[in-house]
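Support request, please re-run this one:
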Amino acid sequence: MENFSLILAIVVVTALAFDFTNGFHDTANAMATTISTGALKPKVAVAMSAVLNLAGAFLSVEVANTISKGLVDETGIRPEVIFAALVGAILWNLLTWLVGLPSSSSHALMGGLIGATIASAGMGAVHGDVLVTKVLLPALAAPIVAGLAALLATRLSYSLGTVGKQADGKAAEKGYRVGQIASAGLVSLAHGTNDAQKTMGIITLALVAGGAVAPDSDPPTWVILSAGLAIALGTWLGGWRIIRTMGKGLTELQPQQGFAAQTSAATVILASSHLGFSLSTTHSVSGSVMGAGLGRKGGVVRWSTATRMLVAWCLTLPAAALVGAGAESVTDLGDWGTAVVAVFLVAASAAIWKISRREVIDASNVNESEEPAGVVTTAIAAVTPPPAGTVTEDLTATIPAPAPVTAVPDPATPPAAAV
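Re-run finished. Output below.
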């Protein structure tokens, strides 16, 4: 019983560690566009997001129940299986954070859980219908729906803005910045509602597996509180590497676009949380950012960055599943196997952190560097007409003024007499 109690405590601590990585990995989802457009200062933005993530954790338990009751057969799961799943999810989160790619923490957790469960109890322990309907299909639909909504919202914003553009342009821009702050807060609240629940679900699953709570139980209050605090703390630290990619590396956003992108993403995330879909907030926000980038006339998306993100999305589930399955195979050897996996997790995490110190990205330089434009982006920008009213200025700046003409004296004309 003592050994069991120890492994259960290890699982809870590891789950909260995953929740912490989820927080700083996904800070960009809510605040990258707000920071890149200058609507909020970086540290103020992440502090605001942290508070709202904590509040969102208390709004619902539907997603938590999807994980703890629906994805895998909880009767055949041991705490060691859940520990192995968390190892796969944490390592994938840290690797993608290191390279600045906004991949899905949700799918990393799902992949780790599926791989560890299959390694322990076989394919039959995974509920394929739940995986397809509440994980895979939302993963495909979310970026498309959010992207189209953001594209239409962006075009509508610019159309409405054109009417009173000359009359009060500065006031309109200020209004969009205020709206962007409000929508960013809504995304943060939605993120807490959706992503914090995943850790609640995984801890509840561990408690059920260990006999600490009855099957089909909702997450206890202490689980909700601890998961909310962990994700809020991670958010407060800020995932600056991914914020740079999402805010500057994917497309250039103006306040109107930022407002449209975040409002669209928040709507999709909150709707999915209400329905119990384990949606990736990263997919939703990335899709909405790309849609907003394409919604502005002359706006472009850096498809090289988008392609790398897509590759990371496709690899998330299988990569985390492989690591989770491997970790489960080692923990199955006994207590010493669990200890080996724990040491490996700590050592690998420390190594990734040390590598990240070679190029420090924080609140002071998050907006300084931009992703270089690709061939398609450069070509589109070259043929895009400049905004009205800037042609004269551009020509003046690029065409040099004619050189003064110096008169050449005629040799046949005698010079004038000196006075």
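The longest helix spans residues 165-209. Residues 370-398 have pLDDT under 50 and may be disordered.
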